[in-house]
TrEMBL record:
<dbReference type="InterPro" id="IPR000307">
    <property type="entry name" value="Ribosomal_bS16"/>
</dbReference>
<dbReference type="GO" id="GO:0015935">
    <property type="term" value="C:small ribosomal subunit"/>
</dbReference>
<dbReference type="InterPro" id="IPR023803">
    <property type="entry name" value="Ribosomal_bS16_dom_sf"/>
</dbReference>
<comment type="similarity">
    <text>Belongs to the bacterial ribosomal protein bS16 family.</text>
</comment>
<dbReference type="GO" id="GO:0006412">
    <property type="term" value="P:translation"/>
</dbReference>
<keyword id="KW-0689">Ribosomal protein</keyword>
<protein>
    <recommendedName>
        <fullName>Small ribosomal subunit protein bS16</fullName>
    </recommendedName>
</protein>
<dbReference type="Pfam" id="PF00886">
    <property type="entry name" value="Ribosomal_S16"/>
</dbReference>
<feature type="region of interest" description="Disordered">
    <location>
        <begin position="61"/>
        <end position="80"/>
    </location>
</feature>
<dbReference type="GO" id="GO:0005737">
    <property type="term" value="C:cytoplasm"/>
</dbReference>
<keyword id="KW-0687">Ribonucleoprotein</keyword>
<dbReference type="GO" id="GO:0003735">
    <property type="term" value="F:structural constituent of ribosome"/>
</dbReference>
């Protein structure tokens, strides 16, 4: 099953995350099919960039969404 989830990057003690579509059976650091966004919790306010059209496209094709990404989607929809 495909999942939309976070993939960690960045330096030690300074994480940044890519929001990616990948196979749920594989490790989070394994290859991914598509990058649909970016999340940087280290700045104030946290930076969230999501391509909501891509997220909807992948969900319509049966991809699940992790709880954390679901909360990021809600926050991104509230941004102006």
């Amino acid at each position: 099953m495909l999942m939309i989830r976070l993939r960690r990057g960045g330096a030690k003690q300074n994480p940044v995350y890519r929001v990616v579509v990948s196979d749920s059976r594989k490790d989070t650091q394994a290859d991914y099919l598509d990058q649909v966004g970016f999340y940087n919790p280290n700045v104030e306010p946290p930076e969230i960039r999501l391509d909501l059209e891509k997220v909807e496209k992948w969900q319509s094709q049966g991809a699940g969404v992790s709880e954390t990404v679901q909360s990021l989607i809600r926050k991104a929809q509230q941004q102006p």
